Amino acid sequence: MTIGGEHARIARLAAIYRGTPSRDVADYGIDVAIGDDAAVLVPPPGEKLVWTVDEQVDGTHFRRDLVSLHDVGYRAFMAAASDVAAMGARPWCAVSSLVLPATLNDAELDELAEGTREAADEIGVRVVGGNLARGPALAIGTSVLGTAKRALTRSGARPGDGLFVAGALGLAAAGFRALDTNVHDARIVLAVAAWRRPRARREAGLAAGASPHAHAAIDISDGLAQDAGHIARASGVAVVLHAAALINHGGLDLMGASDALGMSSVELCLYGGEDYAVVVAASAPIDGFTRIGDVRDAREMPNGARVYLGDWNGERAIDEVGFDH
Amino acid sequence: MTIGGEHARIARLAAIYRGTPSRDVADYGIDVAIGDDAAVLVPPPGEKLVWTVDEQVDGTHFRRDLVSLHDVGYRAFMAAASDVAAMGARPWCAVSSLVLPATLNDAELDELAEGTREAADEIGVRVVGGNLARGPALAIGTSVLGTAKRALTRSGARPGDGLFVAGALGLAAAGFRALDTNVHDARIVLAVAAWRRPRARREAGLAAGASPHAHAAIDISDGLAQDAGHIARASGVAVVLHAAALINHGGLDLMGASDALGMSSVELCLYGGEDYAVVVAASAPIDGFTRIGDVRDAREMPNGARVYLGDWNGERAIDEVGFDH
After folding, report:
1. Does the beta carbon of A154 lie under 8 angstroms from any beta carbon of chain B?
2. Predicted pLDDT of residue B4
3. Partner-chain contact B321 A4, CB within 8 Å
4. Tell me: the pLDDT tens digits for A90-112?
5. Which residues, numbered 63 to 92 in chain B, qualify as contacts with chain A under a Cβ-Cβ cut-off of 8 Å?
């Protein structure tokens, strides 16, 4: 259902989303895209579907004084695609449901959609449908379908597995903090870019999905401490994160941002969200991933907690709290 | 991505959406439902997917003084499922993205979700995932996946086809008008019910999809005049709607509502939306459908218009305007 007189806007969006994605892999099986009651797709035979939806709301997930509409569209797409990538699936098609305030003009709508198109292109996804509605605040709902021979859930981690990560940890959170507190410093440039333009970990996810050693996976949207806790609880295990490995993995970019903001690198890694890194529990290393911890038998851990941080003081349980939007 | 501290709410929703749908037909191929990064589905071999999204926003599509949260959840689901039904597809699974104002409490969230669950049950659909986000106004984004051997698009109507409808026309619009203008009259009881609890035309859609005579279809969300125009333009034809057939099809319910509101039955049929009737262009009658018009060669029509109304005065072009939310 569309708002009255919005057919011209649907045509604008269809023009932006039309055209060949930059990766040919995703451009298969699309019988009908934007312009009918629904999209019509032919799924690849023998594959499962992996399906998610994410919503980004003005004032909750972004502030228009901190980020361009192009980046809002880009970020919204990546947040949704990340869920599909983290299950080891190949992102395929998306639909985009936009709630638009009456003040948003056509040029602004184009800018938003072009950001989404750019992100979809990078991930090899075609936007095949959507919806326009009017509302008091800009909101972007993005649903992504992916395909996979098998899907990595949160629930397969086994004691003895390593915990591996692909993608930044804490960097986007540092960037958001810098923008929010108006810190300008050469050391946070990459962190700000990480927050404005996060990237779903398509290749890493596919590598994990293809590895017989990978047992469970999740994307880090709410912070490592909380999301590692999701794997631990779903799998009935405990996880120990290594502080030194986190700092090492974060590298100079994170240390620079941490210095500029006066925050600890390890805290940024544990509690910063929106990097959309992928964390995998696996019995052997996977290309593109760095080891940051271990999976343990929960019954052998001291106090019944699920997530521990290991450093020179030993291993202590940490709170599974996350990034609050 | 979820708002911080909302895991308990996801568990509440998962409990509401769990359990066997009342129609067993849809409960296949669901490997992973709510609780992981994404749902995992096994599509039926050899079938196409039909995929849509719809969004209902407080203040635009409904007003909480006119409708219960249960009905809001019900309506939001049916609006989305209707797009899938109107392509002749079997609705299968859904994801629900909720934007919740801070004032909405757990009991209200349950009521909303129970309305969605009831509608999903009626249509034989399982809700397999979703998202929770905070925002200034309640908004319900519903994405529905269906499956079909073939999908009926808007673009296959041929001169010589009849135009057929299943479901009410104008009744929901009469109900909304009665609520909005505070009219209380025994003659509008069914119209109010039609607006509060519209029903996606699953069986009619499946009958159309299975008929070799059906060439094109659409659901009436914005009013017959506009949506018949979509079929006409997409198919490169013109359509003539018969006033007497519309009045006949609307029956006593619509005539009563029309009398009580002082509005013409034909105008309600042409310009009233949100009944989610299905209109099909077909070369022979289809079970459950009533004939309301003809498909014509556009070049043989007098003035280049696409949609005409035929009555005792002859055939005249009518405006393809729709229901403005």
Report:
1. yes
2. 44
3. yes
4. 999 999 999 999 999 999 999 99
5. 79, 83-84, 86-87, 89
